[in-house]
Amino acid sequence: MSPSALFGLRRTGRYCAVPAPGPSCGAAEEFPLPDHPDIKPLGPAPLMPGFQLCDVAAGDGITIRAAVAGDGPPLLLLHGHPQTHVTWRKIAPELAKHFTVIAADLRGYGDSSKPDGGDRHIAYSKRAMAGDMVAVMQAFGHRRFGVVGHDRGARVAHRMALDFPDAVSKLALFDIVATATMYALTNKEFATRYFWWFFLIQPAPFPERMIGADPEYFLRKHVEGQNKVAGATEAAAFAEYLRCYSDPATRHAICEDYRAAATIDLDHDAADAEARIQAPLLALWGGQGTVGALYDVIALWREKALQVEGRALDCGHTLQEERPAETLQEILSFFPRR
Q1: N vs C: which end of the chain shows fewer Cβ within 10 Å?
Q2: Residue 164 CA from chain centroid, whole number
Q3: Active-site residues: which are they?
Q4: Which of these CATH numbers, 3.40.47.10, 3.10.450.50, 3.30.70.1120, 3.40.50.1820, describes 3-334?
């Protein structure tokens, strides 16, 4: 089924609209989750003050874990590797004063479902992962919404904007250029800096077993290497990331995500090579990181989207953890808010 047909099915079928939260649901109060058969409440969200955890049925047996709070226009937050929705902890409570915020764990990550990858890793294609998130937003009654994505989440958001243009009103992409572009421009410096792009795509179970020998070491080196602001990922957040990374199923799913990026995602990108993102796009990146060092970010996104703006922040890869105040201000300035 095509993405457009999928969107139509979810709009008119089981993912029907539900009443929007009332005006009393501010960031500091308990958020009243909608009474919807596909939304299972799980209580307060750790490390996310004012947010409620829930599991959302996204179809095809997939369950997506999300933290939800706020009132105002809907805003979907998508994390990257190796994080979870907790990566938004420093800015989500403030965003929830202006938006209805849904911070979700991508399939394969955090506490979301981890399906078998299938033929050519299709279950971890960005098309499949984007479809999950459209279903989640529709379960909350949001047919059109803004999207903020970091790293892998930004790649999901990119595909979502192409496959579901009626759903995405605006999108902000943090510290990436398009996957196909990065592979096409690969050189020794990129391969050295982003070695995991080529390590994680090796056939299973090689990378899974290598990382499994010492998951904490691999995770810590990855986070510390990407961040350029000391202490940006505090101990409690790292412990949450490690809890998830310690699960062999998570490590395998992450490898499947990267394997999909190097195979079926490139096929989808090639088929859409002439397509342009219709929604206004905000590109932000770390001026001290790999993306800022190797690419003309704005110029490359203008090859993919009709309306692009953005700038570098003085940090590494994880903007929302390293420079939360600046990142928050950029989001508030870009997205229409309450």
Answers
A1: N
A2: 16
A3: 151, 317
A4: 3.40.50.1820
